[in-house]
């Protein structure tokens, strides 16, 4: 079941994957670099014995992309064997790591997630739930966690609720997943989200819930709805497809343009394009075809792969685009380099005009809570106006969805979402972020290079 579920969650991480299982006496683990389809075999799955299991697909936002950082991370300590899967990013991991290392802790990986296990191993008094509550009160940042011991399965969500985690049921058993699309695949029923700050313990078929962690506000990541999650998933209690459709509709209301075709940049621009086309009355067409065998360029960690990916990922259909005024719909402009290549590609296919519409506000600040955005200096919108970006990507026009429009599209009720990558207002600030997040340098290299091309 976990193996199948990981297929549904492959888009959340493509660097490594792992599964741990428990038969009540022992925890078994298999993990390796690569995609779910490549890492497991009948043989390896047969060795993952037991009645409970957790799995993970990883892309790195802290620590390097290596087998040593693949999850679940497994340790043996006074609480027994513990396997941990972490979705998110801890912002005080470095400080805690230094503190723990100074006290003699030996770290096996460079991942921020390992800090959680070191803290947990140190709390000797009380049961696992007490130790977990104490340990988690020391960490800051984004964390949706699954822990597996010999006899327990535990789901945790940080008190800000940055990353999703939902609870489901299948044949009288419980299941957790980052997104509900994993439940659909295995035939589990979605029950609810794990609440921000909640620890859910499953032991002996019984569920115990503790509201252990508290925060001054909620900060659910709005980018999950813009880009990261699958459109067929229920995330933060809402279907992502509905949000994206509304983003497209509101985008069409806010930023209309006379054109012949609405063309999505697949796949994440697709749902919003349907909404944009329906609202504007302009026909929708798949004018760009995506090669699905190239990974999501955005989450590949190496620059060389990213640039290679852009070239092989999309191909225009000339017959559709020739002589047409085209509206391209995309979910974001990060560095601007990809958008520039796509606009060029569409023009080269014969489009007479190319208008770019983006389903969120300009990305002006990096994320520190589990999305691998580049530094502020690399984000084109951090130092360029919309007009300048439009000129750089060589579009005829460029507009973004407004922040109120985006909040309306996800049905946000007063301040429950993190929107820091669009506003620079971080729900949790910390010292190390300041030099990067506040950096005001313009992308001079990029800009000057483009003018020479
Ligand atoms: S900064 Fe952006 S990507 Fe990161 S958690 Fe906030 S909304 Fe999500």
Task: Report what the structure shows.
This protein folds into two domains: 2-216, Aminohydrolase, N-terminal nucleophile (Ntn) domain (Glutamine Phosphoribosylpyrophosphate, subunit 1, domain 1, 4-Layer Sandwich), CATH 3.60.20; 223-452, Rossmann fold. The chain has helices spanning 2-8, 36-39, 42-47, 93-102, 114-122, 128-136, 181-186, 223-228, 240-254, 270-280, 303-313, 318-321, 337-348, 386-393, 403-409, 420-423, 433-437, 444-452; strands at 16-22, 27-33, 52-58, 73-77, 80-90, 141-148, 152-157, 166-170, 173-177, 189-193, 198-203, 206-211, 220-221, 234-235, 238-239, 261-264, 288-290, 314-316, 325-330, 353-358, 397-400, 417-418. It has a six-stranded antiparallel sheet. The chain has a four-stranded parallel sheet with strand order 16-19-20-21, with helices on both faces. Helix content is 32%, strand content 25%. The chain is an alpha+beta fold. Residues 162, 221-223, 367, 369, 371, 418-421 line the site of iron/sulfur cluster. Iron/sulfur cluster binds at residues 162, 221-223, 367, 369, 371, 418-421.
């Amino acid at each position: 079941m976990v193996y199948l579920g990981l297929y549904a969650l492959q888009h959340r991480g493509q660097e490594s994957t792992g599964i741990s299982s428990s038969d009540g006496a022992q925890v078994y683990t298999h993990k390796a670099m690569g995609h779910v389809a490549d890492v497991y075999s009948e043989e390896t799955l047969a060795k993952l014995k037991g009645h409970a299991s957790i799995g993970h697909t990883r892309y790195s936002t802290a620590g390097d992309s290596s087998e040593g950082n693949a999850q679940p991370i497994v340790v043996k300590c006074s609480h027994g064997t513990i396997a941990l899967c972490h979705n998110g990013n801890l912002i005080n991991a470095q400080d805690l790591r230094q503190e723990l290392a100074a006290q003699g802790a030996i770290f096996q990986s460079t991942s921020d997630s390992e800090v959680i296990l070191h803290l947990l191993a140190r709390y000797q008094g009380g049961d696992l739930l007490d130790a977990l509550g104490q340990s988690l009160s020391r960490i800051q940042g984004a964390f949706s966690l699954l822990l597996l011991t010999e006899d327990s399965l535990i789901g945790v969500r940080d008190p800000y609720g940055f990353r999703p985690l939902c609870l489901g049921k299948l044949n009288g058993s419980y299941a957790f997943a980052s997104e509900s699309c994993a439940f659909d695949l295995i035939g589990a029923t979605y029950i609810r989200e794990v609440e921000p700050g909640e620890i859910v313990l499953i032991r002996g078929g019984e569920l115990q819930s503790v509201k252990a962690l508290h925060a001054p506000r909620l900060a659910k990541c709005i980018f999950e709805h813009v880009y990261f999650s699958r459109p067929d998933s229920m995330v933060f209690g809402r279907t992502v497809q509905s949000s994206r459709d509304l983003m497209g509709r509101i985008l069409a209301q806010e930023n209309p343009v006379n054109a012949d075709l609405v063309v999505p940049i697949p796949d994440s621009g697709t749902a919003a394009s349907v909404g944009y086309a329906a609202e504007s009355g302009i026909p929708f067409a798949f004018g760009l075809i995506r090669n699905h065998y190239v990974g999501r360029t955005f989450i590949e960690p190496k620059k060389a792969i990213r640039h290679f990916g852009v070239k092989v990922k999309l191909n225009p259909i000339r017959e559709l685009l020739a002589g047409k005024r085209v509206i391209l719909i995309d979910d974001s402009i990060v560095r601007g380099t990809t958008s520039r290549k796509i606009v060029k590609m569409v023009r080269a296919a014969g489009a007479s005009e190319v208008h770019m519409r983006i389903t969120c506000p300009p990305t002006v600040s990096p994320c520190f809570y589990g999305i691998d955005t580049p530094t502020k200096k690399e984000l084109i919108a951090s130092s360029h106006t919309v007009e300048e970006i439009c000129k750089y990507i060589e579009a005829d026009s460029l507009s973004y969805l407004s922040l109120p429009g985006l909040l309306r599209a996800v049905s946000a009720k007063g301040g429950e979402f993190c929107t820091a990558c669009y506003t620079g207002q971080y729900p949790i600030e910390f010292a190390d972020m300041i030099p990067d997040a506040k950096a005001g340098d313009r992308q001079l290299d990029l800009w000057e290079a483009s003018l020479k091309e």
